[in-house]
Amino acid sequence: MKNIAYAGSFERLWQSEAEAENKLYNKLFCITFLLCNPAASIGFYLADDPFFSTLLYTHCISSSLIAVLLLLHHKKVITGQKMSFFTQLMLICFYTYLLAQPHKSYAQSCLNLTLGVIFTGLILRWPVRYALASSLLSIISYPAAIYFFAEPPAFKMFFAEGGVFLLIAQFLFPFVMKLSVGKDKREFYYRHNLQEQNIALEKQKTIAENATKAKSDFLSMMSHEIRTPLNGIVGIVHIMMDEDQNSKNRNELLTTLKFSSDHLMAVVNDVLDFSKINADHIQLDAFAFDPGLLFENLRKTFVPRADEKKISLIFDIDSKLPSHIISDSVRLNQIITNLIHNAIKFTETGYVKFTVREIAREEKTLLLHFTVEDTGIGIPVEEQPTIFESFTQVRQEDNENKGTGLGLAISKELLLLFKSEIFLKSEPGKGSVFSFEIQFPYLEEEVAVKPVPLKKIVTAIAFPQAKVLVADDNKINVTLATMLLKRKNILFEVAQNGKEAYELFLQGGFNLILMDLRMPVMDGFESTALIRKIDQNIPIIALTASAFKEEKDRIDASGFTGYLTKPFIPEDFYAYIFPFLGVQTAKVS
């Protein structure tokens, strides 16, 4: 069906092209016969042929009708091809009438008609059906008119004085037209295909250029975003190593170091979140939660930053919200956090206001309207259509706020998962308003709520005599893991690759294996496969820097007990490994 549609489309294009290219020739054909047919009678006049008067009278009538056809074409009533075709059919009828009239000689008439066929074949490009209809009408009507209506010797005279050549020319006319039209059509086909390919190549070129620009912009932005916190981390580490610091200075440096590392982690998380969304690896996890508690926790999160910038942070929450709504609170929190974070970042004076209003409520669902309003720098109208694209930020010379440019893009994509979309109203210098609506199932009664993860301080209550095998080729990772183990007086041994890990495991005495996945000689997957052939029960924790689902699925299928994603903070490290070592833990919020 697609090929048929394409063929039909191409045929229409060809007809349009043929009509446009032959417009002048169709007019020239008609004007030529309009003028030349009456002029042809002059030859008969000079020869003192009594046929002159009949010929002149007939051709004056035919020229008048041709003029009518030209007028109809000019008024766009008929196409150029139809104009020339109707002219030809009309002339054949007049020629048939003239051939049936008494003649002294048919030589001049046959010569004129043969030249007319040649002229038509040279300048016109008709559909083959037009040429075939013209030839058949001529071949049948010319001899028939002479045979039935002229004097008996006229029939033989017609053939003897050029009629044979005229009929041969008429017979060949459709074949000549088919060859000519076929040649033109093939040329048009090649031009058309070449044009389509050029357009496609131009589109691909534009896409490639845009992709290259986006890549360049992204790398430039990421270079800034990663190097800035790294510069802080590297610089402060060197300062702390080179100088003796008093307690106050050391605490200030550590605070800056922590801020830089948190910023770097936020950049990495943004990129990973965006990659997972684009790969369709994020799905909403619906459970009941208290919306009032969620919004209050959000407010507390941003109060210090707003106070630091000396701007007002306003949370205007509808007081009639139900006690629990059912949705993915983590992703909803992420959307609102991105919007409020941006609003505070780009606002120097005034306020940032977060509003939640109930729009409609049914028996089991309600519609909530969210807005985040600020009095910040605003967004120019020409940049608003692209502000939700990846790695895009407001371009203002005085804008010193940087970031990955992924916050709004992530929020937009997450809202699509909620079957919603985000809207923007903004004016430079006067602030911005971001808004969206989401429909939630809700509950009024008390329910068992999925607990919100708390910040944990893990404390070991009882230590068994445990021993851990750390398999990692990266010295920094080994240093971090072993220092954390030393703090809790947990014994350990270190392997530089998967083969060493397997050989140390064979010596026995280990309660837990921390296995890096990417190592030389033998990677973590191969080493774990060998260990599992001997021991199915020993806990093997994969240490991975990948946050992608494919990697985690492979870990689950390769005999690992679990995985710990790098980088991790000490509390998370202890909370994860202690249960495998039989250590009782306490979690304090």
Features:
589 residues, alpha/beta, Heat Shock Protein 90, seven-stranded mixed sheet, five-stranded parallel sheet, 16 helices, 14 strands, disordered N terminus, disordered C terminus, Sig_transdc_resp-reg_receiver, phosphoprotein, nucleotide-binding
Summarize the topology:
Blueprint lengths: L1 H20 L1 H24 L4 H24 L5 H20 L7 H17 L4 H22 L2 H91 L4 H32 L8 E3 L1 H19 L2 E6 L6 E4 L1 H17 L5 E11 L3 E10 L32 H11 L5 E5 L3 E13 L13 E4 L6 E5 L3 H13 L3 E5 L2 H10 L4 E5 L7 H11 L5 E5 L4 H9 L4 E4 L4 H12 L3 E4 L1
Parallel strand pairs: 2-4, 9-10, 9-11, 11-12, 12-13
Antiparallel strand pairs: 1-3, 3-7, 4-5, 5-7, 6-7, 8-14
Task: Report on this structure.
By secondary structure, the protein is of the alpha/beta class. It has four domains: 2-201, no CATH class; 231-278; 287-443, 2-Layer Sandwich (Heat Shock Protein 90), CATH 3.30.565.10; 457-588, 3-Layer(aba) Sandwich (Rossmann fold). It has helices at 2-21, 23-46, 51-74, 80-99, 107-123, 128-149, 152-242, 247-278, 291-309, 329-345, 407-417, 475-487, 498-507, 524-534, 549-557, 570-581, and strands spanning 287-289, 312-317, 324-327, 351-361, 365-374, 423-427, 431-443, 457-460, 467-471, 491-495, 512-516, 540-544, 562-565, 585-588. Strands 1, 2, 3, 4, 5, 6 and 7 form a seven-stranded mixed sheet that branches. A five-stranded parallel sheet has the order 10-9-11-12-13, with helices on both faces. It has a two-stranded antiparallel ribbon with strand order 8-14. The protein starts with a helix and ends with a strand. The model is unreliable at 1-6, 395-403, 452-457 and 585-589 (pLDDT under 50). Residues 221-442 form the Histidine kinase domain. Pfam families: HATPase_c, HisKA, Response_reg. This is histidine kinase.
